[in-house]
Amino acid sequence: MPVITAQPNDYELPNDGLALVIIDMQRDFLEPGGFGETLGNDVSRLQTIIPTVQKLRQVFKSKGLLVIHTKEGHREDLADCPPAKLNRGQGTLKIGDEGPMGRILVLGEPGNEIIPELQPEPDEVVIAKPGKGAFYRTGLEEELRSHRITNVIFTGVTTEVCVQTTMREANDRGYECLLVEDATESYFPEFKQATLDMIRAQGGIVGWTATAQQVIAAIET
Ligand code: TIU
Predict the structure, then answer these.
(1) Ligand 1 center to residue 187 CA distance, Å?
(2) How far apart are CA 46 and CA 43, in angstroms?
(3) What architecture is domain 16-219?
(4) Which atom of ligand 1 is nearest to 165's Cα?
(5) What confidence tens digit (pLDDT) does each residue in 100-144 have?
(6) What is the four-CA torsion angle of 72, 78, 80, 86, rounded to 10 degrees?
């Protein structure tokens, strides 16, 4: 059985049951004028991982493996956006306000689309989620179960917010989780580093981490 040379130790790939999850690579977080920028962040940091995520997707697809995208967004009437989330932050624009890419963080708006470089293909799954974690009020768990997924490779943004929350949710549900170090990014480099460290600490309390090249090398074995 191929293994990924990961941290804190080798990650065994299953014969079946491996999926790639790409978290929130949407214009809201990666392009100017979206939710990420209205919160005061420099979105250009996040764009650096696009080629690496594209490469991972291509390798997974070439092996017939499942690819799942998530995107964070709310219903038009914001009924699924609690006041605690709506009123948080000191942004120039709030969730639901009209911005340069349509209403901020609202499903179906241009800003809510997955970035063109990673446009989902017809055989890929897209999960819309109202929270930071991708299991909260979504069909992700049923989707993984129906495909008999046991092992999940995580990529996307931002490392310490939606990626880490989702990875912890997956870990608690019994999935073997690995985060790809150079296919995830944060607006805060120190938070990304801390997240990688805390995931793999204590013998992999949340899971494993590895580089994209290490993941690809094992999958192509
Ligand atoms: N603000 C921030 O870092 N992240 C989010 O609000 N959502 C995701 O991480 N996708």
Answers:
(1) 9
(2) 6
(3) 3-Layer(aba) Sandwich (3.40)
(4) 9
(5) 999 999 999 999 999 999 999 999 999 999 999 999 999 999 999
(6) 70
